Amino acid sequence: MERGLASLPGLQQRPAVSHTAVVENKRLGHALAVVKAQQDVKHQPKIRTNSEKLGYQKRGRKLYGPDYKAKIVAPTAVEMTV
Q1: CA dihedral 62, 66, 70, 74 (to 10 degrees)
Q2: Cβ contacts of residue 6 below 8 Å, gap of 6+?
Q3: Residues 21-47 as b or e (16 or more Cβ within 10 Å = b)
Q4: Between the CA of residue 40 and those of 26, 28, 37, what are the distances in Å?
Q5: In which band, very low, low, confident or very high, does the pLDDT at 57 lie, cut at 50, 70 and 90?
Q6: Digit-coded pLDDT (tens) for 1-54
Q7: Quick one: residue 3, left, alpha or beta (phi over 0 = left, psi -120 to 50 = alpha)?
Q8: How far is the first Cα of the chain from the last one, in angstroms, to the nearest whole number?
Q9: Largest alpha-carbon pair distance within the chain?
Q10: Radius of gyration for the chain, computed over Cα atoms and rounded to the nearest angstrom
Q11: DSSP label at 67?
C-alpha cells in the first residue's frame, strides 16, 4: 500500500471548474463591488457647516476700477447765491 496524499481522508482531488465559470465569477465580484461603493456614497449623510445651516449666501464682489459706473448717481449740487 502506497502512502501518499490520495490516501489521506479529505484530501481528494476536487472536480475541475471551467474557465468560463471563473471569469463570470470575477465579473460578478467586480459588479457587486461597484454596487456596494455606490450604495455607500448614496447613504452617506451630508454634514453641513454652520453657514449652510443658517442659510448664508455668498454675495458677488463689487467691482471698482477704470470701467466702474456707479448705479446710483448723486444729484448735482445747486449753488446758492445771495
Answers
A1: 130
A2: 12, 13
A3: eeeeeeeeeeeeeeeeeeeeeeeeeee
A4: 21, 18, 5
A5: confident
A6: 455 555 555 555 666 777 777 777 788 888 889 888 888 877 777 889 999 999
A7: beta
A8: 138
A9: 138
A10: 39
A11: T
Mean pLDDT of 54-58: 89
Amino acid at 6: A
Residue 15's pLDDT is: 65
Looking at residue 24, its amino acid is E
Tell me if the pTM is above 0.70: no
Which phi and psi angles does 28 have, rounded to 5°? -65, -40
CB under 8 Å to 13, separation ≥6 — which residues? 6
Amino acid 53 reads K
